[in-house]
Amino acid sequence: MTPSVEPEASPMPGDAVFVALGDPTRRWLIESLAASSASATALARGLPISRQAVAKHLSLLAAAELVDSERRGRETRYTLRTEPLHDLSGWARTVGAEWESRLARLQGSLRAAD
Questions:
Q1: What pTM did the predictor assign?
Q2: What was the pLDDT predicted at 13?
Q3: What is the C-alpha separation between 38 and 45, in angstroms, rounded?
Q4: Alpha-carbon distance 70 to 50, whole Å?
Q5: 3-state secondary structure of 103
Q6: What angle do CA 40, 26, 18 make, to 5 degrees?
Q7: What is the separation, in whole angstroms, between the first and last Cα of the chain?
Q8: What was the pLDDT predicted at 4?
Q9: Per residue of the chain (114 residues), what is the pLDDT tens digit?
Q10: Closest CA to 32 of 56, 52, 61
Q11: How far apart are CA 92 and CA 83, in angstroms?
Q12: Looking at residue 114, what is its pLDDT?
């Protein structure tokens, strides 16, 4: 028996966004930054983790292009970037529409078979 081999998937532009959204702490940070920009210190006040841990999460969000950072004096302020979320939303709508079309065709085939 030959083992099945799945083709290696090439990374999609939204992959980093999916990874970033896969963690509840990062989702909380995104929701917080949607309200207003903030420093890692201010964001850490709302979480049961250290400021350093928040900074690591923010670094991952920045790598996914979900946040921008700006140095203001001694602190760095983070701001949400919504473009990657809009891109992901558009992709999800496209995939959803494709599945709706496939399901409609399947339903039509099943009705025709009755």
A1: 0.77
A2: 62
A3: 11
A4: 21
A5: helix
A6: 140
A7: 38
A8: 56
A9: 555 555 566 666 678 999 999 999 999 999 999 999 999 999 999 899 999 999 999 999 999 999 999 999 999 999 999 999 998 888 889 999 999 889 999 998 888 987
A10: 61
A11: 14
A12: 79
Buried b (16+ CB within 10 A) or exposed e, 93-107: eeeeeeeeeeeeeee
What is the per-residue pLDDT for 57? Answer: 98
Token pair for residue 58?
Answer: 């923010």
DSSP string, 35-97: H--EEHHHHHTTSSS-HHHHHHHHHHHHHTTSEEEEEETTEEEEEE--HHHHHHHHHHHHHHH
Find where tokens 């799945």 sit: 6
Region class of 33: left (phi > 0), else alpha (psi between -120 and 50), else beta: alpha
Within 13 A of 102's CA, how many CA atoms are on the CB side? 6
Strand ordering across the sheet containing 75-80: 38-39, 75-80, 67-72
How many CB atoms lie under 10 A from the CB of residue 91?
Answer: 14
